[in-house]
Design brief:
alpha+beta
Length: 157
Amino acid sequence: MALSDEKFWKTKSLREMNDEEWEALCDGCGQCCLVKLQDEDTDELLHTRLACKLLDIGACRCTDYDNRHERVHDCAVVSPDTVERLDWLPHSCAYRLIAEGKDLKWWHPLVSGNPETVHEAGVSVRTWATSEEGVPEHKFERFVVRDPSIRKVLTGE
């Protein structure tokens, strides 16, 4: 990738970025592709270990990125218009960080120069997520993340 401005995220708002810059902001963690549940009693957002059927968990990338919204009915559109409303976006998400006026994390590929650092830092879902494919919806609750170290990655707490 040959981006025109090496550190564009420091000088441009999300709205000012071109398509290449926008796509480069994705760190490849896969967290946004996890199935999330909402507790009916408390409205608490519950993260599961289940990944969207389109996520290649090893690569932490969508296998049909161009058609994801047609193939997955609840695949969220992350855009400059929606990023601030998507309160479930990971606290480490570059789109969220930039929208909040913060810098990218040291492990972000644009900072480190290495797409593997997101995985090495333990931020990606690569080692603990499983596909939702074949799991009936009534069993999703069994996959709610309870491990404190994973919950910390997902919630930033």
